[in-house]
Amino acid sequence: MSENSKRMPDGVDLDRARELGLGRLLLMARRDFLSRSQQQMQAHGMAELSNTFVSVLPYIDTKGTRSTDLAQRSGLTKQAIAKIVKQLELDGLLKREPDPSDGRAFLVRFTPNGLKRLQDTRRMVEEVEGIYAELLGKEELEHLRGLLLKLVQASRSSS
């Protein structure tokens, strides 16, 4: 333990506990994933994804998603989603259309340009996953994917 490290009353080394905290590791892994994805895009001469697009991209179904569902899935407010969607409409990546099953609701859909961007992004994700497979080994990467999937499924069933 370093001289600057703090020991909690229960004997836990606070610095070490923070360093190995699951939430922190997940956040740092996400940051690494996004950074590597941006590097791949630059290497292929593609424009970087805006943080705005990245913040909602995983939550939009290819057939469209209600804006209220998008807010719920992303953990953002309806107002924040409306602002993000408006910006991405101006960027030509998304469009809002009335939901045919509920005239009061809107579906957020990818434009043709947005779908192209989604396909390009998927290719970059596959390249990053290839880098991770080299770092961890294919089996370990698939094990990690399986564990993360279990966490996601458990969180969906508990909410």
Q: Which regions have little confidence, pLDDT < 50, spanning 5+ residues?
A: none
What is the β-strand count?
Answer: 3
The CATH superfamily is Winged helix-like DNA-binding domain superfamily/Winged helix DNA-binding domain
Give the strand order of the largest sheet, numbering strands 1, 2, ... along the chain.
Answer: 1-3-2
Description:
The protein has a single domain, classed as Arc Repressor Mutant, subunit A (Orthogonal Bundle). It is 64% helix and 11% strand. The protein has helices at 14-19, 22-43, 51-56, 67-74, 78-90, 112-136, 138-158, and strands at 65-66, 94-99, 102-110. It has a 3-stranded antiparallel β-sheet with strand order 1-3-2. The protein is globular, with a radius of gyration of 20 Å. The N and C termini lie far apart (40 Å).
Provide a brief overview of the structure.
The chain is mostly helical and 159 residues long.
Provide tags for this entry.
Arc Repressor Mutant, subunit A, mainly alpha, 3-stranded antiparallel beta sheet, 3 strands, 159 residues, 7 helices, 11% strand, 64% helix
List the helices and strands and how they pair.
Elements: H1 14-19, H2 22-43, H3 51-56, E1 65-66, H4 67-74, H5 78-90, E2 94-99, E3 102-110, H6 112-136, H7 138-158
Antiparallel strand pairs: 1-3, 2-3
Helix pairs in contact: 2-6, 4-5, 6-7
